[in-house]
Write a structure and sequence with these properties.
Blueprint (H helix, E strand, L loop, with lengths): L1 E5 L3 H11 L3 E3 L2 H6 L4 H11 L7 E4 L7 H14 L3 E6 L2 H12 L4 E6 L2 H10 L3 E4 L1 H6 L4 H15 L4 E7 L2 H9 L4 E4 L1 H7 L3 H16 L5
Parallel strand pairs: 1-2, 1-8, 2-3, 3-4, 4-5, 5-6, 6-7, 7-8
Helix pairs in contact: 4-5, 5-6, 6-8
Length: about 220
């Protein structure tokens, strides 16, 4: 399972790529807004960081675009900025129509804000490169994020669709583990979630015990 960083902050992206060897980046308008910079400036900075690599970077069209032709037009502009860019398009009738057209043009897409199996099915049929079911959001409102991931994977396998699943909006290491067990191709999470995933209280306890024992093996000074 590939690990993507969910962030638009260049310093976080650099750190994750250098220290964790992550496989890609996902952004959304909220992440871009959090940088305090114009979107075009943020995208240009990210493009420079991933220059010369094959790492996919998901960047999103204006969520308020209502017609598929407008979505396609903006997607073309974003894709032209960097060969690494994958265009995020929201789940909707017009969005799936746009994804179908972009797929015909060879522009990679990420169908985002997927909350149901029928939405994932429409995205796969349209030729989305990635399908992003939102795990954390579902669980916040009492629905099972894990079950949706399993259903989407089964649907893809049943019919041989080429789309890859990105388990999105993951909020903790448990959800990362569940995404892996559900057969997701990718997971995306924020920097803090990955930092938490490296830690385990029993590991810390073991380090303290072994360190104490190790000191006893040292020769007297």
């Amino acid at each position: 399972m590939k690990l993507f960083l969910d962030s638009a902050k260049v310093e976080e992206i650099r750190y994750a790529l250098e220290n964790w060897a992550l496989d890609g980046v996902t952004t959304n308008p909220r992440h871009v807004a959090a940088t305090g910079k114009p979107a075009t400036e943020v995208y240009a900075e990210i493009a420079q960081v991933v220059q010369g690599t094959s790492l996919p970077v998901s960047v999103e069209v204006d969520p308020e675009l209502e017609h598929w032709q407008d979505i396609v037009h903006q997607a073309q502009e974003l894709a032209a900025m960097c060969p690494n860019f994958v265009i995020k398009v929201g789940a909707s009738e017009q969005g799936f129509r746009a994804i179908r057209e972009l797929n015909c043009q060879g522009i990679r897409t990420n169908a985002t804000l997927i909350f149901s199996l029928p939405q994932a099915w429409h995205a796969a049929r349209a030729g989305a490169t990635y399908i992003s079911p939102f795990v954390g959001w579902r669980e916040e409102f009492g629905d099972s994020g894990l079950e949706l991931l399993r259903q989407v994977r089964q649907m893809l396998d049943n019919f041989g669709y080429c789309s890859q699943i990105i388990a999105a909006a993951t909020r903790n290491p448990r959800q990362i583990a569940e995404a892996a067990l559900a057969g997701c191709h990718c997971v995306t999470a924020g920097k803090a979630v990955y930092e938490q995933s490296f830690k385990q209280p029993f590991t810390d306890l073991g380090v303290r015990r072994f360190a104490e024992a190790y000191r006893k093996t040292l020769a007297p000074a």
